[in-house]
Amino acid sequence: MTRPRIRPAGAALAAALAGCALTLSAGCGRAPDPHPAPSPAPRTSTPADVCANLVSYWVKEALRGSRWAGLDWEQKGLSNEQYEIHDQVLTAARAEERRAGRKAAEALADRESRRRCEAARGATGSSENWRPPDEWTTAPTPSGTPGASSGE
Questions:
Q1: Residue 109 belongs to a domain
Q2: CA distance to 38, 39, 46, per residue, from 42 (Å)
């Protein structure tokens, strides 16, 4: 007696259908949870939060001797005011590290960054090179318009 030959395409289709049926039936045995957990409300970061997180992060990187600790204040994403806070906190954290160790220094970095950034309301002062537009300054006149010098 000879067995009937099963075609490979037919066997693959049968296996796929059986897998789909198994998957669908596995999810059908439970009712949805009548009391789903509420999703957390989104939290907006304040300027002081952003300042404290940035300053604390970069102070800890400097304490660890990270190769990224040598970036300048702009590359670190700090304002001039935040960089001043960074320098003050780093000095205090290094002294704390010598006195009480790395963990104590990192805890001080978190505390002092938070305290100083809150006191400075986020320390968002811009670069000393930036100046607000002067109301007395007028934009240059584009060339080719009346009033523009022809350069002759």
A1: yes
A2: 12, 9, 13
For 104-125, the pLDDT digits (tens) are 999 999 999 999 999 999 888 7
Give the contacts of 88 (CB within 8 A, at least 6 positions apart): 112, 116
Contacts (Cβ under 8 Å, ≥6 apart) of 102: 63
Report the candidate in 78, 34, 31 with the shortest Cα–Cα distance to residue 56: 78
| Closest CA relative to residue 121, chosen from 77, 81, 75 | 81
Domain residues for the domain of 94 are 47-119
Contacts of 58 (CB under 8 A, 6+ apart): 69, 76, 78, 86
Q: Does residue 33 form part of some domain?
A: no
- Per-residue model confidence as pLDDT tens digits over 28-50: 556 666 777 777 778 788 999 99
Residue type for 33, please? Answer: D
37 in any annotated domain: no
Token pair listed for 20: 């789909």
Give a yes or no: residue 89 inside a domain: yes
Q: Which residue has the tokens 């590290």?
A: 97
Domain count, the chain: 1
